[in-house]
Amino acid sequence: MSRTTRAPRAVGAPRAPRALCALAGLLALLAAACGKEGSPPRKGPAADKLPDYQVAQGFSLPDSRTWTRARKRGHLVVGAKEDQPYLGEKDPATGTYSGFDIEIAKMLSASLGFPPESVRFRTIASANRETALQNGQVDYYVGTYTINPGRKKLVGFAGPYYLAGQSLLVRKDEKDIHGPRDLAGKRVCSATGSTPYQRIKADYPKAVLVAYDTYSICVDNLLTYQVDAVTTDDAILIGYAAKAPGELKVVGRPFSKEPYGIGVPHGDNALRFALDDALRAREANGDWKKAYDATLGLSGVPAPHPPAIDRYPAS
Amino acid sequence: MTEATALYDLPGPRTRRRHAVYAVLSTVVILALLAWICYLLFDTGQFAYTKWMPFEYKGIQRLLLRGLGNTLRAFALAAVLSLALGGLLAAGRLSDHRPVRWAATLVVEFFRAMPVLVMIFFIFVALKAQPLTALVAGLTLYNGSVLAEVFRTGVDAVERGQREAAFALGMRKTQVMAYVLVPQAVRAMLPTIISQLVVALKDTSLGYLITYEEFLHAGKLIASNLDYDLPFIPVVMVISPIYIGMCMLLSWFARWVSRREQRSPKTEAVAVTTAEYGTLLPGGEPPTAPRP
Amino acid sequence: MYVLKDNFSTYVEGFLGTLQLTFYSSLLALALGFLMASFRVAPVGSLRVFGTVWVTVLRNTPLTLLFFAVLLGLPRFGLVLPFQVFAVLALGCYTSAFICEALRSGINTVPRGQGEAARSLGMNFGQTLHLVVLPQAFRSVIPPVGSTLIALAKNSAIAGAFSVTELLGTYKTINELGYNIVWTFVWIAVGYLIITLAISALFNVLERRYGVAR
């Protein structure tokens, strides 16, 4: 009797009695035996083919601690988001990441001499990005990471690779909302306590704010007519618009500037400059636009010009 | 009635009839409540195929199993380490040297008074630990301190005669502890100890809040996906029976041990604790801790 | 030290948030706990079953899971309330299971003979309950209810991680401003100690006035 009771604890314990292992194995088999392969069907368009990035041959960056460590390891570890469609998204079933940020990470990896397929992605929540870079959990971070002076004290930033700004997502048939000025009396959804939320609250107090801790819930509410608009960075909104291109659109001019950068460990200037150079080259040879067209571009929003790279001197 | 309280007399025939009427009425109300909830579930389309379809896929099942595995791993680590820390701190509190006793008391009281989540966040944010380390360390500090109190009260609860007899036989303090008091104390406190482990098991879900990829985290990843129509309710329906089942199994084990030990002749000199209320409350006190 | 002075308003806001959350959840927990306890000792079978299921399920549910289900799941039913209310609901329901058990064991400490004696004196149910059983039960439930409410105050920290304004959540704001993280947490810890010690003091006073002499 006591045996079955302790069974759940035994998973992963190397020296658990055989009966327990058998039970755990049976449980796993039972669960896995009746499953379909592959991943559940997804909504929204998909690119026919993702771009290939040419891997730099014989690239070497001995001055960078991060790069040498990655070379020894054989692959790069890149931090990303997991819940932003067409931007940084993890397929729950297969565990593979996809999106514009992911493509940026892959093309930069190729420029650093690592085949893009070999990149290992790790989900790092917004609150832990600095920590993850500081203690070496990830080599660099690509995930809607806005460059600002406060963060520059803690981490280095290559790029920016995209200039986002707060914007509004509405239903395709919406005729009244063209910008934040039209929000008076409208129900607007954003993430609880986020910067976009605070900005609407302070600058457009007539809007009726609704908050959830996940944007996907806001978007669902928008589709079911419970709110009239969703607000956050346009890149994130464009990603959601691409999920349902026939039903959603991003309106108005962005009303803030959020330059997205690639976070690198603080003080690793060699890596930062190498990433700046790589990004510039990828923008020049058209890889950047290809990456955009294969991801965010599926929403119908044409590719913007990439922002100027801010190569600030080593501090 | 299962338990007689001072509140009611044995019912006579008329009271029994009245109770039967109440029983029917309350059953109707409860069933209506359940029916209403079911109606809401169907009405809001919680049983739609798209919301349940992800669970058919092996990848999703593996994701959930991996999450469950991570939960159990954190639990196993936290359980072993808290027992060790608890033993150490209890030894400190029972020490003959005053400074050691004070230090141990300070540690135990501090970590019992702090919300366990504050400690987990402190270790995670301020000490920059990995999620698993932060979770296990936080759980160990809290549960270790509570278990130290449990061990100590257990030792104190052994009849005085046992200790006196052992000393009279010429045993040293270590021997008295190791051969006489601790074996009886542990037997007596076993139900409480297991109940405290249930608290640790429940609290592993706090790892979700510091992005440790445990069971609830896997659920959230599925639930917040627009492709699957945000299956929050289906996910809760799938994962909560597993969580609750695991905890119930462990609490039931605590009760079983309690009954067994109460019958055992080896616990004659000490009162066996029952695995009762309070013991399962995270942040609560074990029932046998003496109050100041 | 500067951490506290510079961010005093943030701390106060968080502290009041925790206080509010604790207060309203305590009220809900006490009311629901009392109701469930009366169900569990009722002579009507279906109520007893309902009370038992309520207590057993909630006691074995991780609080984080309950928060997840209430804060993120209930809105799926079209029930849209402020997060604060959801948090009170989750915390109150959860703690009610433990309050219920404390009350029930309090009632069970009153010897059956007391009730029998009261009834043989001709007292009806209301009088027995009001004059004999509850006063005695009340004494012995003060300490366990106190420690349950202290646990509630500590558990309210989880709400902060679900974007409800409360004390633990203030670390995010203060951390973004670049203040010393260790001191930030020290003051958060002090805030919790103030609340738990206050509850503990309150119940000590109650116990001294009404409690069983030990």
UniProtKB/TrEMBL annotation, chain A:
Keyword Transport: yes
Listed InterPro entries: Bact_solute-bind_prot3, Solute-binding_3/MltF_N
Solute-binding protein family 3/N-terminal domain sequence ranges: 75-299
Keyword Signal in annotation: yes
SUPFAM superfamilies: Periplasmic binding protein-like II
Protein name: ABC transporter substrate-binding protein
Signal sequence interval, chain numbering: 1-33
Any Pfam family hit: SBP_bac_3
Annotated source species: Streptomyces lucensis JCM 4490
TrEMBL record, chain B:
Keywords: Cell membrane, Membrane, Transmembrane, Transmembrane helix, Transport
Family in the record: Belongs to the binding-protein-dependent transport system permease family.
Swiss-Prot/TrEMBL GO biological process terms: amino acid transport
Pfam families hit by this protein: BPD_transp_1
InterPro entries found in the cross-reference section: AA_ABC_transptr_permease_3TM, ArtM/GltK/GlnP/TcyL/YhdX-like, MetI-like, MetI-like_sf
Organism: Streptomyces lucensis JCM 4490
Main location: membrane
Membrane-crossing residue ranges in chain numbering: 20-42, 72-91, 103-126, 176-199, 232-254
Keyword Transmembrane helix recorded: yes
Membrane-topology descriptor: Multi-pass membrane protein
NCBIfam families: HEQRo_perm_3TM (TIGR01726)
One Gene Ontology term, aspect cellular component: ATP-binding cassette (ABC) transporter complex
Protein name in the entry: Amino acid ABC transporter permease
ABC transmembrane type-1 domain boundaries: 68-254
Location relative to the cell: Cell membrane
UniProt superkingdom: Bacteria
UniProtKB/TrEMBL annotation, chain C:
Spans through the membrane: 15-37, 49-74, 80-100, 181-206
Pfam families reported for this sequence: BPD_transp_1
Membrane topology: Multi-pass membrane protein
Compartments where found: Cell membrane
Domain of life: Bacteria
GO biological process assignments: amino acid transport
Domain ABC transmembrane type-1: start-end pairs: 15-203
Coiled coil: none
InterPro entries: AA_ABC_transptr_permease_3TM, ArtM/GltK/GlnP/TcyL/YhdX-like, MetI-like, MetI-like_sf
Keywords: Amino-acid transport, Cell membrane, Membrane, Transmembrane, Transmembrane helix, Transport
Sample GO molecular function, one term: transmembrane transporter activity
GO cellular component annotations of the record: ATP-binding cassette (ABC) transporter complex
Family: Belongs to the binding-protein-dependent transport system permease family. HisMQ subfamily.
Protein name: Amino acid ABC transporter permease
